[in-house]
Each structure stands twice: as C-alpha cells, then as structure tokens.
Amino acid sequence: MGILEKISEIEKEIARTQKNKATEYHLGLLKAKLAKYRAQLLEPSKSASSKGEGFDVMKSGDARVALIGFPSVGKSTFLSLMTSTASEAASYEFTTLTCIPGVIEYKGANIQLLDLPGIIEGAAQGKGRGRQVIAVARTADVVIMMLDATKGEVQRSLLEKELESVGIRLNKHKPNIYFKPKKGGGISFNSTVTLTQCSEKLVQLILHEYKIFNAEVLFREDCSPDEFIDVIVGNRVYMPCLYVYNKIDQISMEEVDCLARKPNSVVISCGMKLNLDYLLEMLWEYLALTCIYTKKRGQRPDFTDAIILRKGASVEHVCHRIHRSLASQFKYALVW
Fold first, then answer.
1. Where in the sequence is the domain holding 207, given as residue range(s)?
2. Same domain, residue pair 28 and 17
3. What does the alpha-carbon distance between residue 312 and residue 307 come to, in Å, rounded to a whole number?
4. In the chain, alpha helices (H)
5. Which residues form the OBG-type G domain (predicted)?
6. Based on the domain organization, do 275 and 317 belong to the same domain?
7. CA distance 276 to 76
8. DSSP label at 90?
9. Do 81 and 113 belong to one domain?
10. What's the rounded Cα separation, in Å, for the pair 40 and 164?
C-alpha cells in the first residue's frame, strides 16, 4: 500500500468519523498520522532522476511575491501589466511552463514578482510540476492568489487545501506553544489558559505517534490539535496571502461588491486595467516594508534614495544596510 493510498484512507476515515468528546483522541491520532505521511510525500525521492531545467529564481530586490493560481486566470497578463517583463499570455491553459520573474518598482522599493505555472488539483502530490511550484511559493514573503471571479469560490478552497497540505499556512500566525524535546523525564504538560480543544491525554497520544516520549509542552493559547502538530513538525511556513479576483468585467456589480467585501480580498480586471493601483497599495501593506531616508547634518533629507527595511527593524539593521563596519563604530542616531 503506497503513501498516497494510505493518505486517502485516513482522509476517508476522518470524513466518516463523527466529531464528539468520545472520538476526539481517535481524530487527533489520525491527524498526526496524516501529517506524518504528507511529510514523507514531500521528501525528494532517493532515486537519481535526470537533471531537469532549473525552476527557482535567484532572490533579488527588497521583497518577493509569488503569483499562484489555476491555469488561465490571468497571472501572466498581471505580470506583464505590473512589470516591464513580458510573460507569454494566450487563451489556452499552461502557457507559462517555468517560473518567470519581474520587478515592481513602488515607493522606492524593488519588489520581485514571480509568475508561476498554473496549479492543478493534486499538485501537492506532484501533479503538473506542482511540487516545484509550491516549493518556490514557500520562499516568498507574500502570496498573491489569482482567482477567476467567474468561477466563484471553488478555486479558492481547492488552492487553500493544496497549500495547506504542504505546510503553507495562509493569513495565520504561529501557534503560541512552547515545545522542547528532552533526553529524559517523561512528558511535562502545562497551560497558561483554559484549553477547550486539546487535553493532556491527546497531546501525549500525538507525541507518541511521533515517537517522542520525553518533552516539555506549554500552551500559551487555546490551540487545536492541528496547530500542535504544526509545532511538532516545525517546518510550517506562515505567510500573508492576498486573494485577487480577476476578470470582474465579466460578472455583475452585485457579485463584484460581494467579492470585494471578503477579508484579504481585492477585485481587479487585467483586461480593462481596473483597480490595479489599489492592489499595489494593499500589497505594500501586506509586505509591511518601511522606507528610511538618511540626511546629512544641516541639510534636507535625501528623498530620492530610500533604505527599505522590514517592519520591526532596528537602527542596527540600518547600519548593516549602509556598511558592515558601521555598526561596530556606531555611537548614536537621531530618528524622526
């Protein structure tokens, strides 16, 4: 029985099982097994395959944004509109076959935009180069999920499911759980809040499934078993995602209004160039970049050349960006 069959068996079992107090341990164990098999599925195969064409693109600029979506939703058209790079766009599916990079210049920052090939259902298992596409998406700072406004919500849920199964968590923060494996002393379990979704017994069962018998676990917030499994596995990527509905010129005003009111969503039309400026503003907000301008004493600040840093950066980061040796001789800074 292959890994794929095992995964589908467990998924069917989870769907069959009723959710109540009596079955929560059983469901917790099934979820742990499922996460384990999915991790095995993502490991590269041991057999030496023939060397294919390179897929990942070298990181450049101040931030990296990946375009993910089904074939023929307008990813390449969007890249051609926003950047000076021309990505081939045609009315048939899978026009784009490799990763095509472009650069958006906005507020003095260079944002690298990656046009990835369309994802199909089952991409997480490696269908249609799906694994490579998703691996590139993991390295991005923000994911733009391109959706066809005429197809409704089907595409969004399918894509979320594909990304979820390879450990990409969209618009979520890392669970506040302290977890540390130890050499001995059994499992010590504590929580600073009342837990409604996890219990000590369930935590022990999940840890035993991963063959961990000595560990320290502290819950600082009320988390679900899935989130606890994410903490144990430890290779999850938490990233902001912007849902972009393209082709709004083909649906009614009421439908556009309904889509635009959804959280983390923007409606655009690449064909008629509608609402693209607002999308850039939203993208800037999601990237959480800060522009810092330097000034010489007694002179006006130089607003032509900005230092672009992430949110939460300190003066030390600015020093490193200017020159490596500056931080060691640094005395003080005046900040406006």
1. 177-233
2. yes
3. 14
4. 3-16, 24-42, 75-82, 130-138, 154-165, 200-209, 225-233, 253-260, 276-287, 315-322, 326-329
5. 63-288
6. no
7. 14
8. -
9. yes
10. 15
